[in-house]
Amino acid sequence: MKLGLSMLFVLVVNLFYPADAQERFYTKSGLIRFYSKSPLENIEAQNSSVTCVLDTKTGNFQFAVLMKGFEFRKALMQEHFNENYVESHKFPKSEFKGQVLNIGEINFGKEGSYPVKVKGRLSIHGETRDIETTGKMVIKRDKIGTNAEFNILLSDYNISIPTLVKDKVSNKVKITVSCLLEPLKL
Amino acid sequence: MKRKYFVWGIALLVLLAGILGYLQFNRERDSLKHIDPKFSVKAEGLLQEFISNENEAGKKYAGQSVILAVTGEIKEVIKNTANYYTVVMGDTSSLSSVRCLMDSTFSTGYRDLKRGTTVTIKGNFNGYKADEMGIGADIELNYCILSSPKISK
Description:
The complex is a heterodimer of chains A (about 190) and B (about 150).
Chain A lengths: L1 H15 L7 E13 L6 E13 L4 E7 L8 H11 L7 E8 L11 E13 L2 E14 L2 E11 L18 E12 L3
Antiparallel strand pairs in A: 1-2, 1-8, 2-3, 3-4, 4-5, 5-6, 6-7, 7-8
Chain B lengths: L1 H24 L13 E4 H10 L1 H7 L6 E13 L5 E5 L7 E6 L15 E12 L8 E11 L5
Parallel strand pairs in B: 1-2, 4-6
Antiparallel strand pairs in B: 2-3, 2-5, 3-4, 5-6
Helix pairs in contact in B: 2-3
């Protein structure tokens, strides 16, 4: 009798449990890094609080990051980044909304590493641009590791480099995102 | 003679300016250990302020470096792939949380923090992420240190 009730409970829970919830994976502790090579000094920073969601059914992929969460080795660089470059008081968040184009080629039931193609819109500093890149998804047990790398131009996002250092700071920035996604249990 | 002193004076000033500039350029971030918080708040109360009126709360906590002391119950302690610890505080039945990225300089004791313990964490307010992805809203702090209870390193 007890077993019967338990099975009924599981059945009822599954009936009312949103199907997409079981197909959504997420993290709030993803890692994003940027790197810019320049004659004056290489500029690099990281943020370990990336929120990222993947829907394995539709391929929808989204991540968001607070700009003030980027940590630099040098305090002055961090202050300039927030105040003069990305103006984090005006534009506190950056986000990417897109899709894994070849989601159908990934077997989420089989452990392994899969190449992925990602396309979407990246918003930084109040400007939104199309981004298309390749990356990797690693399926291990019930988790999904995602890694992607792409370049952006600061000028595309209306981030201006002060005239004094214009020749010494690169307009091109390499961005690396890596997240370990877990199933979303609502 | 006067001219000689003048030249030496200028040279000394240039040297001092150079040293100060170099130190400022290479200055590292200060630890929050000896900095007093601007606001002392409860984790759930802080979240509620943003959920009910994001604009007003945003204005209240605006600034490049706003230090908060947040008290709440630990939901989870996460160590990410880069070995950074995040202490997650708030109501265990909700997806929304206050997330404190701990200062790596003091990180060795964080793994011993237990779910359900009430802690006070001092950190730099990074901002608020509204629940746009259906996974809860979050308030983020970084460079966090544990104010209480004290843990051994």
